[in-house]
C-alpha cells in the first residue's frame, strides 16, 4: 500500500467531513433563526392558554402576558406574577410554582383571587410515572380540581396535606409522593401570595403604626 496515498486519502476525508459539518451547522442555524419567531409565538400562546385556564371566565380583559411583576419566593428565586385585570382593577393573579416529585420536578401554575382563594391549578410539566403519578394532569384525572376555592385557613395549615399525612387531599394508590409534592407546592404558593399580596396586586402596603412617644 502506498502510505503517501493513504495519508492523502485521510486528509481528504477529514476535510470533507469538516466541510459537511460546517455546511450542516450553518443550515441548522439559519433554519432555527427563521423558525425562532414562530416557536416563540407558539410558546406564548401556550403560556397564555395555561394562564387563562386557572382564572374564572370573563374575569379579566387585559393582556396577561404584558401585565407582570416579579417577586421573590421563600427560596429567594424570582417568580413572575401575571395580573388579571377587569376594567383596570386587579381581580387575581397567576404564577408558577414547582416541587420535587417522585422522578423529577413537578411544575404548575395556580390562579389566586384578591381574597387569596385558589381559582385553579394546572400541571405544566412533570416526569412522573405514567398510569400513576400522571393523574395530577387534569386531562387524566379530576384530582387537581380539588384545590379550587381553597385558601389558607380552609383547610387549616396542618390539614393542607394528603390524607396519609393527616390532610384532606386524596393520594393515589401506589403514588403518594407525587400528590404530596403538588399539595406542598400549592400551599407554598398560597403562602407566597399572603406574604407578597401588596406587591402582586400593585398596592402599597399600609404604613406601620408609629411608636407611642415616651413619657
UniProtKB/TrEMBL annotation:
Annotated keywords: Cell inner membrane, Cell membrane, Electron transport, Flavoprotein, FMN, Membrane, Phosphoprotein, Translocase, Transmembrane, Transmembrane helix, Transport
Keyword Cell membrane listed: yes
Enzyme Commission number: 7.-.-.-
Cofactor: FMN
GO molecular function: electron transfer activity; FMN binding
Superkingdom classification of source: Bacteria
Domain FMN-binding: 101-193
InterPro entries, per database record: FMN-bd, Ion_transpt_RnfG/RsxG
Membrane topology classification: Single-pass membrane protein
Transmembrane intervals: 12-32
Cited function: Part of a membrane-bound complex that couples electron transfer with translocation of ions across the membrane.
Annotated family: Belongs to the RnfG family.
Assembly mode: The complex is composed of six subunits: RnfA, RnfB, RnfC, RnfD, RnfE and RnfG.
UniProt name for this protein: Ion-translocating oxidoreductase complex subunit G
Organism encoding this protein: Pseudothauera rhizosphaerae
Upper taxonomic lineage: Bacteria, Pseudomonadati, Pseudomonadota, Betaproteobacteria, Rhodocyclales
